[in-house]
Amino acid sequence: MRLVKLSYSLVALGLITTACNKGKEESGVAKVPGYDVSSLDSAFKACDDFDGFANGGWKKNNPIPGTESRWGAFGILDKENKEVRLKGIIEEISNQKDRKNGSEEQQIADYYQSFLDTTTIEKRNIEPLKPYLDKIEAVQSLNDLASVTGELQKLGVSTVFGFYVDGDLKNSKVNALYQAQDGLSLGEKSYYERTDSSTVNVRNEFVKHVDKMFGLANFKDVAPGKTVLDFETKLAKLQLSNVELRDPVKTYNKTSYKDFKALSPDFDLDAFAAKQDIKADTVILQNIPYIVNTNKLLKATPLATLKLYTRWQVLSNFAGFLPKGFDAEDFRFFSGVMRGTKQQRTRTERAIRSTDGLLGMPLGKLFSKKYFPEEDKKKVSEMIENVRTVYGERIDNLTWMSDSTKARAHKKLKAFTYKIGYPDKWKDYSSIKIEKDKLFENVVAASLFQHEETVKKIGKSVDKSEWHMTPQTVNAYYNPLNNEVVFPAGILQPPFYNRDADDAINYGGIIAVIGHEFTHGFDDQGSQFDEEGNLKNWWTASDRTNFDKLTKRYIDYFSGIEALPGFKINGALTIGENVADLGGLTLAYYALEKSLKGKPEPALIDGFNWKQRFFLGWAQVWHMNTTDEALRNQVQTDPHSPARTRINGPLPHLKEFQNAWNCGAGNKMVLPEASRVVIW
Ligand SMILES: [Zn+2]
User: Fold this and answer.
1) pLDDT, tens digit, 9 for 90 and up, residues 122-135
2) From ligand 1's centre to the CA of 574, what distance in Å?
3) Is-above-0.85 flag for pTM?
4) How far is the CA of 53 from the centre of ligand 1 (A)?
5) Is 55 exposed, middle or buried (0-12, 13-18, 19+ CB in 10 A)?
């Protein structure tokens, strides 16, 4: 099943574009100091531009490698995880002589090999796509198209509608079927609407890109790029924006399957779902007018256009597994034009990433065995409990919330569960058939497996032990439906969690990350879910009004920040993440202060006291260089503010920051008391 991500399920710490560069062989992973003073830049004052002060040196010393569009702590650690640790694991397996057929070792080694077998890939050209292209060619009606696109969904090929399976927002213990908008190649509707020159350039280049891909495939259509862009522009008009998608109440429209089908009399949703082996009595619809209007759009569009659009989606979906021409052109547009990446990673580096993408959990099992120290579980759970305690104290002290809502907030806080490192039980992937000279078939087999696993959950109890990130992922998440925070082994490494660093650095790093995830349970979306993970109001009306007023002020504050000329931060899109950063920083600061109570004042390190080092720790995990293209893409599509804004944005609201650095009223990183927003 094509996974259409719902914007309220899983709130992650950050989106990462992953990483690597060529030529540089690494034999091991360098030790990261607690905070490296060469990162400082004396050209900036801490009180006027903290990112410049704490990271200016680092930014000068760490230009973006040609293969990346952004470069910072996440990407660097991710690159090490993949190109050193996972590579070592894959090579070790590949050198084993007696791999049992169907074993995870056989799957990993043979998939990796199939990705590297460029001779076979070139020889086969687009022949593996032929059966699917023939089916599209044979389409005679909208109903035929519904069947064919339904079948293609199982392989992950996008079309105008998508399905998703997740816990029912109003009954989070049971999995439900969701339906959502989909089908925009550029990802978000603003790409089809903005009139600034860089967005217009993206659209022009997109047209050229589609034309080039059709040429490579030897399709004879006239101006296919324009046809695809015109169709997607009409589709984009019908879609909700990424801000509108943040509303879990408006996007929850539970409907009987019968009524769902009736919404689209021309494009046969029943056939579309049946081809995906979907059986359900009810569907939760994201946006009913979208289904009605898309049906009308499909009916009004020539069938030839829809068939061309479907062929495009197939080509684009599989471009990375086709001969070099397709793969390089796909990189040129999606990584180059859209994100400013200059150079494609080596085939080996992409083979590691592709293996990780397909067989991430089996690889993660080996990764966590080798790289996650068991004793860290205990240490991290202590940190989590410290954050929980401080959160409880902060709730007690809130002046804007009534006692009855506070009691409910405590109930929710107490019910938070957590996962650390890696799953307790591992899913069995052995039924995926992987062969060393059949890359395309391997990808299809893995997609079909994933699809089956997803579809069979509909109507069944939610498995609360399931992980939605692999252990090697450098990220963390809060899942509102489980009311749980999850910290994969991948992020429990320097600079986020550094066993050799002083506490202040770790509190500014991993503890602020833990606080960030906790705060997601109480951000604009998380606060609408109760302690059992159900979308159910537990607030008094006046407390909710107070909360909304505070978040509105924080939205307006971020909306005034310009990331690049003409590209302001979208305060409403990033509010959940910005609230989580503000909360995470505050919780971590007070957890650190609490840990020092009754102890002698810690000694200065490199001339900085513990309060200052706490904020240096925060700045360090977000240090980043970013291409302009990636920055524009992020502002348009990502619920996370750009790294520089994540560092500097919340600090003027914290009197703790002002005190730590002795900032005065005239400094840029200081807001007057009345303009500060303190939520949690
Ligand atoms: Zn987050």
Assistant:
1) 999 999 999 999 99
2) 10
3) yes
4) 25
5) buried
